[in-house]
Amino acid sequence: MDWIPILSRWTHVGTAIILVGGAFFIRFVLTPAASQLPDDEHTKLKELVMNKWKRFVHAGILLFLVSGFYNYLAVQAPRPKPYHMLMGIKMLLAFTVFFLISALVGRSKAFEGMRKNSKRWQLVVLILAAAIVGISGYLKVVIPKLAAG
């Protein structure tokens, strides 16, 4: 049994679970709860959480890139026409998510406005992530059936 493709797939899916789940938790649980704190406590909590969370975000992006490109390049199965178009859309959406989550956990002054309106941008990230999961499911389930004829 070849363990590298299995490990790569687990890494890719596991990273998605952690990052999307974490983003969901931050957007719908932590942010509303923290907004009830006094401003100074809220600011301190946000700083502490983002300092920890950004490590997961940066490591996750790296794992996504390595495992995603491996999965894409290593699979030699037949790929009908819509595969490459959908994979390209998925990759563009993923790079957009990488940018947005990096901006949300970063410290650059250029993205301070995004961080101040983080609830909106977290929601955008989750919507894009849902689209990526949907495309991934289609590529995994429907495309092999199209290739088989």
Please tell me about this protein's structure.
- The protein has helices at 3-34, 39-74, 81-105, 112-116, 118-148.
- The chain has five helices and no strands.
- 87% of the residues lie in helices and 0% in strands.
- The model has no long low-confidence stretch (mean pLDDT 93).
- By secondary structure, the protein is mainly α.
Q: Quick gist of this model?
A:
The chain has 149 residues and is mostly helical.
Based on CA atoms alone, the radius of gyration comes out at 18 Å
Shape annotation: elongated
Q: Pairing-aware structural class of the strands and helices?
A: mainly alpha
Number of contiguous helices: 5
Strand fraction? under 5%
Helical content class: over 70%
SSE run: HHHHH
Terminal CA distance reads 27 Å
Question: Averaged pLDDT, please?
Answer: 93
Major sheet size, sense and barrel closure: none
**What's the count of strands?**
0
Would you identify the regions where 5 or more consecutive residues have pLDDT less than 50? none
